[in-house]
Amino acid sequence: MIQALNSFKNACQENTLPLTGICLRFVLLLVITAALGVGLARAVGAARPGDVVAYSSARGGSSDIFLLDVASGVELRLTDTPTNEEWPRWSPDGRFLAYMADDTQSGGLNIFTLELATGAVRQLTHGAGVQAFPTWSPDGRQIAFSAGTDLNDTDIQILDLASGQITRLPRTAVHERVSSWSGDVLLFSANGGGLAVFRLYRVNSDGRAFTSLPFGGAVDLNPVWSPDGQWFAFQALRDQDYEIVVRSADGRALRQLTDNGADDFSPMWSPDGQRLVFIRLTPEAGYEVYILQADGSGARRLTFNSFRENTPAFMP
Q: Which domains does the chain have, with CATH numbers?
């Protein structure tokens, strides 16, 4: 990731990329932060794993992808289009962000990647329906995603990036929403039979060993593996609002990390497994990015605006 951001910085500064769009915003941000004495050294060039968070933010009528330096709060806007770009997910090597976006040609929701070093955007799927929630394989060679006619009728498919071949896994439930991949095992949430009853499941990437996971709340969504594969975090509906909960991989241990009157959702682990980022929704502040320790302590707000933030993810 450090090499990718350095290459991107150098390409902008050496004019090997046009001084428009993302490069122009980058250079302007460097000038502004240097004048303020803040600097982007942590977010660009000297960034360490866990220093930077990618997330989507609805500004100007549509959602775009942003980077946020955790220490300084400095933001860098990566996309700026009239369509919605959401659900940013880092490739394991930190060179790419995969995300889902409205496709103006097909009219569907499709998967794209953005290369950080060049700003190049590549469209990976071209369906007229829904291709959403991209999730990288641990080796970065495949992307799992949910696909269907609409967001309420999806199954899990896997795209091989080299060949372009797409493999559909056997459907096991309704509204299968994939969200994490560790080793050979995918985690996903799905409608278990009731209109509002969502449960968590695991399945091997070859479609075998499908298993229903124990309930954490009335509704469980967005499970994500910890970096060591020993835990997974998810959002659970408890006492009329969503809380962040972690469960051991064997299902025996369960810990609730948040407990308040706000809705806390979309958790993602830091690369070292010591922290999580998530979204907190309150009537006063709306949707904002928060960070907390893996033991549930030290919750801290990272964004301060009136826009709708969503799906944060730590830089690997």
A: 1-77 (no CATH), 214-316 (2.120.10.30)
Beta bridge mates, 233: 224, 246
Please give the Cα distance from 157 to 168 (Å, whole number): 4
Per-residue pLDDT in tens (0 to 9) along the chain, 316 residues: 444 445 545 555 454 444 344 454 454 344 334 433 333 333 344 456 678 999 999 987 899 999 999 988 999 999 999 999 999 999 999 999 999 999 888 789 999 999 998 899 999 999 889 999 999 999 999 999 999 988 878 999 999 999 999 999 998 777 789 999 999 999 999 986 555 678 899 999 999 999 988 887 778 999 999 999 999 999 999 888 999 999 999 888 999 999 988 999 999 999 999 999 999 999 888 999 999 999 999 999 999 988 999 999 999 9
The secondary structure of residue 195, as a DSSP letter, is T
Distance, in Å, from the CA atom of 131 to the CA atom of 106, rounded to the nearest integer, reads 12
Buried b (16+ CB within 10 A) or exposed e, 289-312: bbbbebebeebeebbeeebebbbb
- State the CB neighbour count (10 A cutoff) for residue 133: 29
